[in-house]
Amino acid sequence: MSQISLPTPASPTTRWMRLVSSFCRKQPLGAIALFMILLMLVAALFGPQLAPYDPLDTRFDAVLQAPDADHWMGTDSYGRDIFSRLIEGTRSALFLGITTALIGACIGGGIGATSAYFGGRLDVFIQRLNDVLLSIPLIVSALVVVAVLGRRVVAGVDINLLMAITLPYIPVMARVMRSAALSVRSLPYIEAARALGFSHWHVITRHLLPNLVSPWLVMVSAFTAQTILLEASLSFLGVGVHEPTPAWGLMLSSVSVDVFINAPWVILFPGLAISVTVFSFSLLGDALRDELDPRNTH
Q1: Cα(215)–Cα(92) distance, rounded to whole angstroms?
Q2: pLDDT tens digit string along 195-247?
Q3: How far apart are CA 31 and CA 19, in angstroms?
Q4: How far apart are CA 240 and CA 249, in angstroms?
Q5: Homologous superfamily assigned to 28-48+70-292
Q6: Residue 202 and residue 24: Cα distance in Å, rounded?
Q7: Which residues make Cβ contacts (< 8 Å) with residue 259, sequence separation at least 6?
Q8: What is the dihedral of CA 220, 226, 228, 229, to 10 degrees?
Q9: Going by DSSP bridges, is the β-strand pair 157-158/153-154 parallel, antiparallel, or unpaired?
Q10: DSSP letter assigned to residue 208
Q11: C-alpha to C-alpha distance for 193 and 196, rounded to whole angstroms
């Protein structure tokens, strides 16, 4: 009797490669954005090895030097290499952007899912509180937090700046995740789990939250773009990252009108870095939304 050979299950690496290949084929713009983000991550991780000069090294004999073979993006008002400072600034931009987006998305997602699950007075209280917080512009809320708390650096990280960027996005995430959780809460398997006597914690963590991963991922990508822009705005206003730490927004704030007219590269390249990064994360978020939408049949 001939034996029936069963197909060998694909390894996790093979499955991931297939998912990435499928994503790149269906979402070419999202694939380009993902490639740009990976390049930025490489620059953030290996910045000291990739930077041709010390980003803090001042050379007054090379002040406002135009881009050439030695300085690909020119130098600033202190003779510092702009290309090296951009690479080093990628680390602070991505660290603050991704970290604050993840923290805000986790806290806000948990609040939104809990609010939708329990409903009643708890839901009403949380949503009215969200209405108050959402009425405050993001930049104003962040400025207030920084002004009240000041600076508190731990292990090279400004904890208060991290909080100032994170807090404004919590109510936004809570509102979005509540909307998504309301449609999931009414599904039969949620009602079945509650009828079987499972605890609220079990139902929320094992049945509700896993079905909210798709909108959560999309919002994390969108939040990362917004937090990078918010961090650059705070640094531009002088309440974010301080000198001499390389930061894209800080590089823009130190440019006067006379410097911009005579040396436009000083503001061109930092502004381009912010624009490309924000656009890449926004484009990736749109691609993830289209790819993870169950109504999209491609």
Answers
A1: 26
A2: 877 788 888 888 788 888 888 888 888 888 888 888 888 877 777 777 777 88
A3: 12
A4: 9
A5: MetI-like (1.10.3720.10)
A6: 36
A7: 64, 77, 266
A8: 170
A9: antiparallel
A10: I
A11: 5
Rounded to whole angstroms, the Cα distance separating 252 from 234 reads: 11
Q: Where are the domains of the chain?
A: 28-48+70-292
What is the Cα–Cα distance from 197 to 30, expressed in whole angstroms?
43
Rounded-to-integer distance, Cα 83 and Cα 86, Å: 5
What tens digit of pLDDT does each residue of 79-104 get? Answer: 888 898 899 888 888 888 888 889 98
Side-chain half-sphere CA neighbours of 22 within 13 A: 11
Dist CA 140 CA 133 (whole Å): 11
Q: What pTM value is reported for the model?
A: 0.80
Does residue 244 have a cis peptide bond before it, meaning omega lies within 30 degrees of 0?
Answer: yes
Look at residue 75 and give its three-state secondary structure.
strand
Q: How many CA atoms lie within 13 A of 224 on its CB side?
A: 24
Rounded distance between C-alpha atoms, residue 210 and residue 232, angstroms: 33
CB–CB of 149/160 below 8 Å?
yes
pLDDT tens figures, 40-53: 999 888 888 888 88
d(Cα 102, Cα 94) in Å, to the nearest integer? 12
pLDDT exceeds 80 at position 113: yes
Measuring CA to CA, which residue among 69, 64, 177 is closest to residue 130? Answer: 177
How would you class 298 by CB atoms within 10 Å of its CB: exposed for 0-12, middle for 13-18, buried for 19 or more?
exposed
Give CA–CA dist 128/122, Å, rounded.
10
Residue carrying structure tokens 């001042």: 58
CB 44 within 8 A of CB 284: no
